[in-house]
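To the wet lab folks,

You asked to see what we're planning to order before we commit. Fair enough. Below is the target structure as tokens, and below that is the sequence we designed to fit it. If anything looks off to you, flag it before the synthesis order goes out.
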């Protein structure tokens, strides 16, 4: 396995590690906000996104005032996309941690570690929202599911890209041998 010292030798990996840590800290910090503070923040974000959609589509979103619309925007942006982004950084970090293994094991272990960390982060972030830690909030399984789906989709896309790049390299190598 790669050591932490080895991670610092690769600039891209270091950037991904820092982004991964900061994004995870942001997720946990946001989970510990009170219900009122969280609602204000997510309501503001949902309204900004709704206004941006209106501007880009030159169409007034009639449903903007309805609570379910704002909740949907908040959930998709606040949960799905946040964990989608987290997965990108985590995938690189855990893949690099397994660097010294055989290529097939490196990918398997890196992916397994990344997915495990992502699902644990989703679960812990919801548990932090229980009344034990925060007033006016409650954990929701649907949020863990949405977080996990965003995380898994990003991981699947990265695996797909990895396999395409691997095939291209093999094709180039085989073409050079012929």
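Sequence we intend to order:
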């Amino acid at each position: 396995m790669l050591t932490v010292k080895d991670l610092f030798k690769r600039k891209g990996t270091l950037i991904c590690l820092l982004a991964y840590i900061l994004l995870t800290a942001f997720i946990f910090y946001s989970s510990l906000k009170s219900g009122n503070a969280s609602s204000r923040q997510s309501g503001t974000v949902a309204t900004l996104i709704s206004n941006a959609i209106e501007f880009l589509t030159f169409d007034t979103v009639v449903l903007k005032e309805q609570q379910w619309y704002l909740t949907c925007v908040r959930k998709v942006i606040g949960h799905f996309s946040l964990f989608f982004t987290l997965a990108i950084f985590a995938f690189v970090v855990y893949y690099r941690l397994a660097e010294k293994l055989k290529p097939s094991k490196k990918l398997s272990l890196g992916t397994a570690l990344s997915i495990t960390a992502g699902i644990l982060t989703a679960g812990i972030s919801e548990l932090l929202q229980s009344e034990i830690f925060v007033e006016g909030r409650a954990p929701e399984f649907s949020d863990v599911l949405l977080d996990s789906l965003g995380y898994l989709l990003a991981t699947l896309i990265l695996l797909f890209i990895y396999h395409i790049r691997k095939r291209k390299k093999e094709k180039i190598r085989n073409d050079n041998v012929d």
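Structural context that might help your review: The radius of gyration is 20 Å. The chain is about 80% helix and 0% strand.

Thanks,
Computational group
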